[in-house]
Every structure is written in C-alpha cells, then in structure tokens.
Amino acid sequence: MRNKLLRALVFLFSFAIAGYAVVQYGLLDASKAGLVAFKLQKPDFQLTPWVYVLYIHIATGILALLIGPFQIFMKQTKKRSLLHKRLGYIYVISITISGIVGIYLSFFATGGAAAGLGFLALDVLWVATTWTAIRKIIGKNVQAHQAWMLRSYALTFAGVTLRLWLAPMAILFGDFEAGYRVVAWLCWIPNLLIIEAIIRRLTSRNRQSPTLFNS
Fold this sequence. Notes:
mainly alpha, 10 helices, globular
C-alpha cells in the first residue's frame, strides 16, 4: 500500500509540474512566468541568450522528469528490456544536456551567488549520479545501477520540489529573492537524504530497490 501511494504521488507530481511548464512556457507568455517576470524587473538583465538556454533546460528536464517514474516503477521483463534501454538513453542524454546548460544558468541565478552555488552543485551532482549509474550497469552491477539511478531521479525531482518549496519560503522570508536562495538548496538536499535512507533500507533487506516498488 505504501509503495503504491509513493508511486502515485511521484507520477502525479511529475506530470503536474511537467504540464505546468509546458503550458506556462510553451502555450502562454513565458515573460509572465514568475521567475522570468522577476528577472525582467531588473534593468540590467539581458533576456537573450539566457531565455533560449532556459528553454533547453526546461525541455530536457521535463523529458527526464517524465521518463524517470517509468524506469523506476516499471516491472522488468524480457519484452520490456529494449524499451527500458531506449528510455534510459533518452533519460541520460536529457539529463546530460539539461545539467550542462543548467551550469550556465546557475551563473545568472536569481538570488545571486548563494542561489547560484546551490544550483551549480545540483547540476554537477545530477550529471555525476546519472553517469555513475551508467558506469555501474556497464560493469554488470545491476543493484548499484539501480541505487545510483534512484539518486539521479531524486535530483531530477528537484524540478518538482523547487516549486513546492518556493511559495512557502517566499512567504516565510517575506521576499521572493531571499526565499529563492534557500530553495536553491532545499529543492534537492532533502531529496537526496530521503532517497539515501530508502536505498539503505532496501539494501539492508538485500532486495533490489526498483523491484520493491513494484510489489
């Protein structure tokens, strides 16, 4: 029951945030999005090429966000192994691109150096955990591959938790920019701590983590 609830929440939040991003940045006026609108208030801010890099980051990030739950929760069978590999390729490529351009975006982060450093650390760890997972599967270490992919998706899910934390932190600090400095770290550090606790619990039971989610 607990695993089914977790699965439902991950799918729900992933698709909800992806849908929001598509509507806000793809169908509506992106300049009215909260983050972009805030940046446009600063007279010295140059919209281009920043906005084009942002679109690349969002598009590839959405792909990874949507693919991740299927990779984690889908039961592995011989018939699905090819689909798993193909989705995995897209997931890894998406994160690699999104993480690299995210490093560029971190230098222009709202909230200055404090926020920029948080996002820079996120992007570096995001790419690093994903490629560590690839190295593990190349070495035929399936359980380590699964554990590192869980860490990777915990960082991918920062795209969700950032938006969940943003309004409460802005209200708490009474200022959007001050709240954003905290959110730059809060959106991913708890994710990693939680997934690490889950991985340790599963490892102690000598069970492969994604398999447990399917039970």
